[in-house]
Amino acid sequence: MIPDKKVNIIFTASSVSVVAGYVPNTYLASKHAIVGLTKNLCAELGKLGIRVNYISPCMVPTPSVMETIGITNKNAVLEIGAAAANLKEVVLQEEDVAVVAPYLGSDDSKYVSGLNLVVDESFSIVNPCLGNVTTKTVA
């Protein structure tokens, strides 16, 4: 990686890395660990020309998210995410997260390192607690 100097590393975290609230501790801890690792690697590897960024999606109905919030129906997860999101008229899908990775991996982002690209329909800006939204919506 070092001789090439066009290498970049992209991690996936979660929007819970930027909002406070009740989320099962192991999940929250693992996402904060990715954030810390990314920032540290960014500082260390930037000297070598290696970029390190992370993507933080919210409420994408992956098996991990569905298990975490205790819902097995993909459409129900999409509805919860859409109801909690600030940006209306769109529903976050897996593809919406997938399209940002090529940007971070391309020369278009050659001066971007240490970025947390939050893909969450501005949920983390206007909602202070992810856990309360999922709990109130499901209950």
From TrEMBL:
List the GO molecular function terms. oxidoreductase activity
Q: Which UniProt keywords apply?
A: Oxidoreductase
Q: Which domain of life is it from?
A: Eukaryota
Q: Coiled-coil stretches, from where to where? A: none
Q: Does the keyword Cytoplasm apply?
A: no
InterPro entries referenced in this protein's UniProt entry, alphabetically = NAD(P)-bd_dom_sf, SDR_fam
What family does the database annotate? Belongs to the short-chain dehydrogenases/reductases (SDR) family.
Q: List, alphabetically, the PANTHER family matched.
A: 3-OXOACYL-(ACYL-CARRIER-PROTEIN) REDUCTASE (AFU_ORTHOLOGUE AFUA_6G11210), SECOISOLARICIRESINOL DEHYDROGENASE-LIKE ISOFORM X1
Q: Give the protein name, as stated in the record.
A: Uncharacterized protein
Q: Which organism is it from?
A: Turnera subulata
